[in-house]
Automatic annotation (TrEMBL):
PPR repeats: 29-63, 64-98
Family (UniProt): Belongs to the PPR family. P subfamily.
Protein name as annotated: Pentatricopeptide repeat-containing protein
Species assigned in the record: Trifolium medium
Record keywords, A-Z: Repeat
Length: 140
């Protein structure tokens, strides 16, 4: 799947994922799931990305910050800022610790989606990573 992603064959990577999943050919680990999430991101398949993230959680995987970031980025690319915000809130509720990439992506979603109350909230939370000025500069 990784090779298919590198070759920009994201549709084929998703087909392979579905085939492996359907036939239960192997057990997915975090790296394989994240590879599929990258394909979803490139194809802007936010619904599928969210579904895969929930599967990861249901299987008991932990430390899913990178996975959450991929899903939030997918929502950003698909212009689904409210969904991205919901994913972020769920991430925090699950006690998964956001990082600077989480904050940068969710800030872009909030600015592009006119989610100003959420933007203010996230800027207050993310102050330890960077100043408000830098956050606004990155978004412009």
């Amino acid at each position: 799947m990784s090779s298919l992603n590198k070759a920009d064959k994201h549709d084929e990577a998703l087909r392979l994922y579905k085939q492996i999943e359907r036939n239960e050919m192997l057990e997915f680990n975090k790296q394989l799931y994240n590879t599929v999430l990258m394909s979803c991101s490139k194809l802007r398949l936010w619904g599928k990305a969210v579904e895969i993230l929930w599967q990861m959680e249901a299987s008991g995987m932990s430390d899913l910050t990178v996975s959450y970031n991929l899903v939030i980025r997918t929502c950003e690319l698909a212009r689904k800022p409210k969904i991205a915000w919901q994913v972020y809130e769920h991430m925090v509720h699950q006690k998964c610790i956001p990082n600077i990439f989480t904050y940068l992506s969710i800030i872009r979603c909030c600015t592009k989606g006119y989610l100003y109350e959420e933007l203010e909230e996230i800027l207050n939370v993310s102050k330890k990573y960077f100043s408000n000025f830098l956050a606004i500069f990155v978004c412009v």
